[in-house]
């Protein structure tokens, strides 16, 4: 009801809607410490139960207010095709990949952002945004795990590539809270074929099982994690972890990438990680790959009672008066699929 249905329509600040939005938001804020009431969407209630368990969502950070919070449920038919949206231009330098670490909430891979070697531009963005890190959100089971939803459908996992506006801000920390400070590419993961780029990352996971563990990662090209189809939805939102800053231009890819849940395969002893996949019968040292590998990580530090790192997604947030734009035209066949 609060949405602006067409591009260029009335802005909330220029109408009486802004008061309504503030009142509605105030009511919603009071429910944030009880996430099962954070929105009225069907899948949300079940998803929220698990999130409420993590210490990240206890305390003041979980009640920060705002009118453009993320993630959201993207309603395909309500998104507006905007022919002015340019294609995304992604240019990443594999050599700028630094390390992977267990943040205690996520599996995250960091990049050297001291130069413009890796970044994204185009799409809805006015500037080049430098790549800072990427990370994943996933579920305990395949029925949930992604942060965004599409027509109420959630995926087993979601990848976020986080970039900051190096034209307007001197560093990532200042960009986080600044206007147009961040640009995040979202990619859904669905079950299917094994994904070799992801498998290369999975090999480092045993070394970062516990919170705060960190390992160096050699050259890694993150564009290999993007789907071939670059169609996307875009909207103005927030970080989905504290400080929940409303500085993010989101670009969520329409097409997921495929990842296997688990496969009995792995690098043969003595072979380099870049060698071809072994056939399944010859795999002598089996490892978890794909989604099950992510589920071997822990929220907890060494010496603490072990708690498996799963369901590290934030519940859906109300769209409020925002518009979701798409870079592509929905067809009757594709809509709702
Ligand atoms: Zn994220």
Automatic annotation (TrEMBL):
| Broad enzyme group | lyase
Q: Which reaction does it catalyse?
A: hydrogencarbonate + H(+) = CO2 + H2O
What cofactor does this one take?
A: Zn(2+)
Supply the InterPro entries for this chain.
CA_dom, CA_dom_sf, Carbonic_anhydrase_a-class, Carbonic_anhydrase_a-class_CS
Instruction: Name the PROSITE patterns on file.
Output: ALPHA_CA_1, ALPHA_CA_2
The job of this chain, per UniProt, is described as:
Reversible hydration of carbon dioxide.
- The protein depicted here goes by the name Carbonic anhydrase
Q: Which organism is it from?
A: Camelus bactrianus
Gene name?
A: CA5A
């Amino acid at each position: 009801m609060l949405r602006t249905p067409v591009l260029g329509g009335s802005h909330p600040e220029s109408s009486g809607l802004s008061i309504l939005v503030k009142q509605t938001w105030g009511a919603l804020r009071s429910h944030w410490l009880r996430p099962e009431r954070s929105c009225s969407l069907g899948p949300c209630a079940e998803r929220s139960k698990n999130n409420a368990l993590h210490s990240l969502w206890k305390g003041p950070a979980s009640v920060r207010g705002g009118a453009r919070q993320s993630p959201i449920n993207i309603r395909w038919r309500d998104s507006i095709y905007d022919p002015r949206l340019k294609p995304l231009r992604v240019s990443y330098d594999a050599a700028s990949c630094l390390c992977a670490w267990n943040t205690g909430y996520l599996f995250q891979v960091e990049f050297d952002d001291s130069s413009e070697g890796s970044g994204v531009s185009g799409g809805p963005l006015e500037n080049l945004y430098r790549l800072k890190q990427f990370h994943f959100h996933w579920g305990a089971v395949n029925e949930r795990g992604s942060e965004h939803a599409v027509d109420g459908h959630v995926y087993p996992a979601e990848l976020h590539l986080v970039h900051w506006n190096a034209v307007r801000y001197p560093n990532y920390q200042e960009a986080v809270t600044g206007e147009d400070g961040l640009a995040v590419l979202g990619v859904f993961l669905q079950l299917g074929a094994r994904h070799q780029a992801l498998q290369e990352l999975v090999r480092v996971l045993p070394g970062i099982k516990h919170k705060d563990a960190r390992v160096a990662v050699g050259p890694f090209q993150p564009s290999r994690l993007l789907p071939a189809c670059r169609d996307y939805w875009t909207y103005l939102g927030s970080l989905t972890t504290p400080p929940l800053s409303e500085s993010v231009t989101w670009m969520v890819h329409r097409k997921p990438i495929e990842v296997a849940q688990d496969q009995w395969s792995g690098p043969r002893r003595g072979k380099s990680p870049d060698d071809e996949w072994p056939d399944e019968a010859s795999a002598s040292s089996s490892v978890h790959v794909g989604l099950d590998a992510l589920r071997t990580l822990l929220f907890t530090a060494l010496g603490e009672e072990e708690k498996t790192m799963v369901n590290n997604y934030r519940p859906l947030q109300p769209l409020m008066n925002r518009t979701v734009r798409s870079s592509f035209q929905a067809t009757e066949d594709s809509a709702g699929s």
